[in-house]
UniProtKB/TrEMBL annotation:
Residues 1-22 form the signal peptide. Belongs to the tetraspanin (TM4SF) family. It comes from the Eukaryota. GO terms for biological process: auxin-activated signaling pathway. InterPro entries: TET_plant (IPR044991), Tetraspanin/Peripherin (IPR018499). The lineage of its organism: Eukaryota, Viridiplantae, Streptophyta, Embryophyta, Tracheophyta. It comes from Salix viminalis. It is found in: Membrane. This is Tetraspanin. Its main location: membrane. The keyword Signal applies. The keyword Membrane applies.
Amino acid sequence: MLFLIATLMGLTIFGFVVTSQGRGVEVPGRVYKEYRLEDYSPWLRNKIKDPDYWRTIRSCILGSKTCAKLASWTPLDYLEKDMSPVQSGCCKPPTSCNYNMATVEPQDTDCYRWSNAPTLLCYECDSCKAGVLEDVRRDWHKLSVLNIVMLVFLIGIYSIGCCAFQNTRRAETDYPYGENRMTKVRPRWDYYWWRWWQDKREQLY
C-alpha cells in the first residue's frame, strides 16, 4: 500500500511539473489562441520532436480530419469562432504571417513551412507540435487532479487500517501498541487496615 501511495504521489507531482507551462497566447482580434513550442517543458518538447513519434501523431491528425472541418470557414469565421489547439496550430499558418510578396521583413519560420496542400498544411510546423502538446497538457492536468483524489482516498484507507490494527493489538495486550511490561503498584492506605482486620478475625475464630 505504501509503495502504491508513493508511486501515485510521484506521478502526480511529475504531472503537475510537466503541465505547469504552456496555455497558449492570446491573438488580438481573434477568439482562438496560438501556441508556441518553446513555452512547454523541455521533456515534452523532446518527446514531440522525435521523428518517429511525430510521424505517428501526424497520421492520427490526418485520419481524424480535424482540419477538414475548417475548409468551409469564411474569413469572418476566423474572426468569430474558436479553434481547438490542434486546429489552431496545424490547420492554418500563424496569424502573424504576411504573404504579400513585397514584404522583406523576417517572419516566423512556420510561415515558410505552411502549404495549401490538404496533406501538408502546417503539419510540420512547430505551432502544430505545440497544439498537440497543449491537448496533452490539458488531459494530463485532468489526470493529475484525479490522481490527487485517489491519493487522498488511499491515504484515508491506509490510516483507518493502521488505526484498526493498533486497536486490535491494544485489545489483546491491554497495553498501548509497543508497550507490554509489568509495573509495581503501591497498595492504597486502606489495604493495610483490611489485612490487619482479616488477621484478627482468623485469630478469634
